[in-house]
Amino acid sequence: MQYREKIEQLKSSSILLPALDLRARETSFREYPVIKRAYSEILGSHYIDHFSINMVLANGKMLVFSVCPEIAYTLYSSQRGIEQDLAISPTFYDNLDFYFWEDCYSYDTRREVMNKKEERFGIKAGAVIVKKVGDIKYLLSFGTKSSADNFKQEIISQQPLYDQLGSACLQAMNSSLSKYITAKDIELPQAKVYIFKK
To answer: Can you name the CATH fold of 8-178?
Structure first.
């Protein structure tokens, strides 16, 4: 099945809302010195102006490690922000290895979400590469302030390179990320559902 067909199929069903760990909004601030050092090599190259690692723990809850902590804090401070940013929905990261942010947004809010990211943070487009290591999923999230079309063409044609760049950041963040992985909180969260209006 082609990418576009897969996206449309996923969007035609109920979309699971992400379950954020209670620490999700603060991890980027807390780990910022390590994040800045780990991500510095890729920022500014290959149209990459923003990068984050969203770590989905074994219990299904997500933590965010962003080079721009304000994005996670702003977007995930309200239920509406979480409902709008469906690029972090398990519906997409459980079923796709790669996807563009905007393809996950509802038709009703796509412009609003993208405009908010562009006006507030200068980000014009973004994409996610999903990596699974053991029972942890990592969403390697790339964003650009450059031309959205150029970025999309670059990441599609150079996906192995972006995967390699993101994996290098993941490796550099390993000791910081590992301290958030605990064996005790393994109860699965109650999934909330979002249904696109037709």
So the answer is: Beta-Lactamase (3.30.450)
pLDDT, tens only, 45-72: 999 999 999 999 999 999 999 999 887 7
CA distance 159 to 152: 10
Residue closest to 105 by CA, chosen among 2, 7, 4: 7
The answer to whether 38 and 173 have CB atoms below 8 angstroms apart is: yes
Radius of gyration of the chain (CA): 16
Q: Token digits for 185?
A: 């909180």
The stretches in the chain having pLDDT less than 50 are 183-194, 196-198
> Is there a contact between 131 and 170 (Cβ–Cβ < 8 Å)?
yes
Strands 19-20 and 61-66: parallel
Domain extents for the chain? 8-178
